[in-house]
Amino acid sequence: MELIGCIFEVVVLVCLAAGIASNAAVVGSCDMLDLQNGSIGPWRADIDGSGCVLWDKTNEATDWILNMARVCSMMGFILGCILAFFGFFKQCLCPLPCSQIIMDISGIGLQISLALVWPMIRSQVCKTFGCRWGGGATALLLAQIFFFAASILSRCMREPRYERRKTERNSKEEQATKEAVEQPIEGAAEEGNATEA
Fold this sequence. Notes:
Shape: rod-shaped
Strand content: 5-15%
Number of helices: 7
Strand order of the largest sheet: 4-3-2-1-5
Helix content: over 70%
Radius of gyration: 28 Å
Low-confidence stretches: none
Structural class: alpha+beta
Order of helices and strands: HEEEEHHHHEHH
């Protein structure tokens, strides 16, 4: 059981790191959706070969779907960092209050936030120019998969490091106490055998 828990621990920590990297790629990408004359992402756009630049908010301020995708992509990134922070601290360093509950809540919020980035394909820009799946959309899908796996498998990890150390310390103390009790009994039995002879 200890080996399986260790494998889950490694898988969760790797998924958290990969999820954060994928989510950062979503936030920083300008090719989530490919247009006929360029590409767009939640925060950046490359239209007519202008290069990957920030959106001009004056033109797109009324597009609520695009604004929702921006907010949700950033909120997903923040929740992913919270999930990774609590997961790493809980498993590797020291206990934090309500770690598993916070990890569960941030995992659910993270999935909802990242799911609300997908409607971007129905934004006014996509209705005007036509959109199709780009590299940033693949990163978004991977971020959702990695964070989902980390959220679910975080409950299957072995006991945290501080719990394992406490258990080892207690077993050593019990063993030392047991040996200390057995030595006087064995010594008394040997003295009794020597007087009988």
